[in-house]
Amino acid sequence: MLDIKLIREDTDKVAEALKRRGTDFLSDLKKLDALDNERRNSLQHSENLKNRKKKLSAEVGRLKKEGADAESQMEEVKSINLEIVEWDAKVAESEIQIREILLHIPNIPDPSIPDGLDESGNEELRVIGERPAFDFEPKNHVELAEGLDMLDLKRAAKIAGSRFAVYKNDGARLLRALINFMLDVQCDENGYQELYPPFLVNKESMTATGQLPKFEEDLFVMRDDDLYLIPTAEVPVTNYHRNETLADGDLPIKYTAYTPCFRREAGSYGKDTQGLIRQHQFDKVELVKFVEPENADTELELLVADAESILKKLGLHYRVVVLCAGDIGFSATKTYDLEVWLPAQGCFREISSCSSFGDYQSRRGNIRFKRKTGKPEWICTLNGSGLAAGRLFVALLENYQRADGSVAIPPALRPYLKNREVFEI
User: Fold this and answer.
1) Does the reported pTM lie above 0.85?
2) Cα 103 to Cα 105: distance, rounded to the nearest angstrom
3) CA 416 – CA 425 distance, rounded (Å)
4) Which CATH class is domain 119-423?
5) CA distance 201 to 147
6) Topology (CATH) of 4-102
7) Is 370:247 a contact under the CB 8 Å cutoff?
8) What digits encode the pLDDT tens for the residues 21-77?
């Protein structure tokens, strides 16, 4: 959530910054400014009345002590009480309206990211590793997985519908191995604390991280309870410290968590409908950080490096891309995508998105930190996939496939698969 003071001080500057996203928010910002003026005006009236009441109450006490008549002063106090209720109600109503508008306004893009309205404006920063060369026509992950009896999409459709998968035999083992491998690397080597959070969260949690109210159509919601299935572990892990003030000496705080993720993918029909690329349910290891504002840029670079470490250990070819202003997420101010090479598609595909949110989420979730001296401040939040397990499953099959349909297992993963070196028919 944006700082209302920032909007008040320079509405046009904020509007111009948000315009980089491809949408004009000037009218919303001006409405916010007007509502904020109303709120402050009402608050001033209320404070003046409360000061008047305080003086009158003191006078009533003095008059009664002297045995004098205080009836007129007491009547005025009663009248002032009614006025205070009215002005406080106006303050509360203005605050509700202000918050409702603020919840629909995205974060301001970082000045350092490129301009652009969609993914065509993204910039490639670096390419890592060698693209695998095959002396045969590479198969896609569905052909490979079904040939190795790792995957059953038809029965998954029977059970739940399209965009679900049943991993089986070595497929289930591989998925589990990838999750454990990623958690171990992040905890044992990169210094993250592991959490195992709820997969269902309340509306307050979804609102704090920015999924609500903007993206409600993309969420799975419970019929009889005010709960949502999580679209990513970012939601429960970030909300782990909602309504808390953290100690500066404990920062940065770094968490990792494995969860299944659930997304309706509303509006994406016709895109990646085959295979595991875009599913309603998928598995992911998430990385979340709570950091001081002055360290946010450095910590984002370190977060990207932590996510990259998985791809490097598995010997996969990938690239790092910085997203343009029109392609970053609603709550993000800056985002790097890691895109892994998929031979069957002949292109790079996103496998991790690492973002800095500034104080946008902490304002929505009331998460602060306190230095040794000074008042509590808004903390900065960051998160990234470390990585998406299903897409990593795809990348391993396609990049390590052999002409006979078998798939080699990279050395780093073998300890998680009883030291096997290959999946074969």
Assistant:
1) yes
2) 6
3) 20
4) alpha beta
5) 38
6) Helix Hairpins (1.10.287)
7) yes
8) 999 999 999 999 999 999 999 999 999 999 999 999 999 999 999 999 999 999 999
